[in-house]
Specification:
CATH superfamily of the largest domain in chain A: TolB, C-terminal domain
CATH superfamily of the largest domain in chain B: OmpA-like domain
Number of domains of chain B: 2
Oligomer: heterodimer
CATH class of the largest domain in chain A: Mainly Beta
Number of strands of chain A: 31
Largest interface: A-B, 68 and 52 residues
Helix content of chain A: 10-25%
Number of helices of chain B: 4
Chain lengths: 429, 184
Amino acid sequence: MIKFRSLLFFLSLLLPLSSQAALTIEIVGGAAQQIPIAVVPFASSLSSQAESQQDSIANIIGADLRRSGLFRVLETHGVVNQPHDIAQVKYAEWAAIQAQALTIGSVVSLPGNRLKVTFQLLDVLKQTQLAGLEYNITPAQLRITAHRIADVIYQKLTGEMGVFATRITYITKTNNRYALQVADADGFNPQTVVSSSEPIISPSWAPDGTKLAYVSFEKKKPVIFVQSLVSGQRYVLANFKGNNSAPSWSPDGKRLAIVLTYGANSQVYIINADGTGLQQLTHSAAIDTEPVWSPDGKWIYFTSDRGGSPQIYRTPASGGDAQRMTFEGSYNVSPHFSPDGKSLAYIRQEQGRFRVTLQDMASGQVQILSETAKDESPSFAPNGRMILYATSINGRGTLAAVSADGRVKQRLSETGGDVREPAWGPATN
Amino acid sequence: MNKNLIVSMLLAVSLAACSSKPIKEAPPAVVDKSPSTATQAKPAEPKNDNATTAPMAESTMSVNPLKDPNNILSQRSIYFDFDKDEVKPEYRALIEAHGKYLQAHADARVILQGNTDERGTREYNLSLGQRRAVSVKKLLNLQGVQDKQIETVSYGKEKAKTTCGNDDACSKTDRRVDIVYQGE
């Protein structure tokens, strides 16, 4: 097992450094107050071949910050001095282009094909250092290191956790072939986890980010698999009579809520992560599906049409009576919690439009966030700032994201294929 | 390193062998005419992606009533209204004919495959397709067809057209239950 892991690690080093993005991200709108920041290209002692990589660190950081909608990344070419060390910084020059913050850094080759990346985040007005870090990495870790630096900058300047170094999963359909993919949050480094000529739906991240549960139709009916992202090995979690679908991990990763039908309608069950200990949770004559755990692990929220139209209900994870949680509108489905448990995203259908909707759990206040019409599968970024979802434009599936305040909108489009069923992975670093 | 590489290749081969195994098991519940078999890309993606075609169980009867276009038994689809699972009266005769056939042929097995149009979420539609299949099953049960002859599954919206939107004339053929006999 250990050998195997090291092999995978070795293979990952062989991946080209200038990896292609599968998804191109287009940003619409932004926060009212954007933080102006200058990201100076990093100094580099790399060979000319690797030289083309060196300022990409600054580009990756800049793209991350810009994509969040919370930063205005300033053009730095006009500034005469391009510092790489705090001693070289002339603050007045950066104040002149109205930068509030400045990022400088360098990449130095070390023996044994390793790199030393240093960076500093500076407050231009106070002329102080906000953060300074050094990373000893392999060349293949340049992109992830740039994302980690962007996370530090984001955290220092907004006070919230950065999520640039996280991953997303989604399913592509190209030429009638389905592929479950995992990519960096910026769409780079897509890796196929599993592919099939039959549909794959409903991927769900284990809380530690090392496994995915998903539903595959490869056995001519929906069956739930759990697959390790470390070893690539997988097992059947649930293959009972009828449909097996809608897996959702408990916050402690020990159990999953799933949906089974046997010979009748969809009902919610709880099963241990190793496939043992199956217990029925809901008992209705209606459809009960799309279960999710509340972040405190106490409740299972799910979609049910027991009241005539599909609405969101909850029941204690230990079993008990169901309680309706959505009241406005005639079609509310696919609940998904914010990481702090304070809000619930779901899909509302109104006048034929299916849109991402956010409900505040304390006040019950509801806000429709998206302007698209065929939205599905909402999932929160681990910091709760953005909601990633699937939509369809001109009959083609695409991914989109909207900030929880509705101000920042992104569209993630893939050339050629159809993309659906996204889920944002947990923060694991 | 070499040893590790060999281990990974062996593993890739065994995974490929594993995942294609169910197709060879007879008799298949549903005949697959398309390249099937999920392939795991990690640690290595099996290159062989050839179509695996399950044996076709061709009938040896001179006229198979299930295939005879003049026989109601050749009609296999029951259509539904949006977000509904009630079987409309015009399909009663069709279901009754299949019920009689299943009673007369105790060895015959059917899979009722529920489907929906593209509107709504995948999991809700999976459940809705299932409920439609169950509606048809209940009518067969009422005629005395035994549970062991019927399996209900759902494809949800996975087989639906993706360009209909709210055009009902376009999407109505997606909202259906297909009756598929074992061996077909």
